[in-house]
Write a structure and sequence with these properties.
This protein is an alpha/beta fold and 309 residues long. It contains 14 helices and 9 strands. It folds into 2 domains: 3-206, Alpha-Beta Complex (Spore Coat Polysaccharide Biosynthesis Protein SpsA, Chain A); 213-297, no CATH class. 46% of the residues lie in helices and 17% in strands. Helix 5 (124-133) packs across helix 11 and helix 9 (213-229) runs parallel beside helix 12 (263-281). The longest helix is centred in the C-terminal third of the chain and has 19 residues, at 263-281.
Amino acid sequence: MKVLLCIPTLNPGDQLVPLVESILSQTLQPTEVLVVDSSSSDGSAEEFRRRGIAVHEIPRSQFNHGATRQLCVDMHPDKDVVVFMTQDAILAAPNSIERLVAAFEDEQVGAAYGRQLPHRDAGPIGAHARLFNYPEASCVRSGTDRGAFGIKTVFVSNSFAAYRRAALVAVGGFPNRTILGEDTYVVAKMLIGEWKIAYCADAVVFHSHDYGFMEEFSRYFDTGVFHAREPWIREFFGGAGGEGLKYIRSEMNYLFRKDPALLGSAFVRTIFKYVGFQLGLREKVIPMKMKRRFSMHRRFWDGEVRELD
């Protein structure tokens, strides 16, 4: 099985060395590693090359979460499996890639994603998000599980995920233009098309974020925009209402045990997330100037303006 590992980058800075070292220590070495760099200004493209990793550079204005990943797939049509990571994810065990790719021994599995552990310096709120969304037990989901899991059925993360090329081709690949959620889009298509999705709890990376209030708002605004433009996903799999309440209860219990002083912050953060998501769902009536201000991925809107011109 030929495996491509693709990593989109933009000024990874201090993240570069631990990322590369974690890749080189893997028991299963990818057939090829490709960095797609959005014109970094920190010299990282040259440093990747110095360490023997292929780099394909694109203008920063051309980056898109879906199109850039599809570029990786299209550049290597001979690879059977494409693994994606983000520059801030560090492989946490020597067999992480091996365990992730092993999911494709089941010929019905179209995509697989690994378990994300919080970085060692993660705050309690960021740590809980990883512990809640990435449990200790592996599972395989199909489209028929939507009744039990709702929108959680399509949960996946390209911070550490792999795709069978044949399955990607079958669903038309990653979307050409999306503000985020390219992984959710593809997995939803696969599940509707009767492929299965594997969660591999023994394939682990360190990856977490400690977002501020406005960052949470912006991230959820962009998520709302994604679902507003792809309404078929929630129509088929359901909304996140029940899962959201379960998350809030879990977070409150976790913080009560770990750091009760953060309970108020978590409550305010939840409001910011909710408002951001609801505004994103209504993005059609929001002026472009405000969309840019609300959004975490502001360059996405530059493309929107170019398409209107």
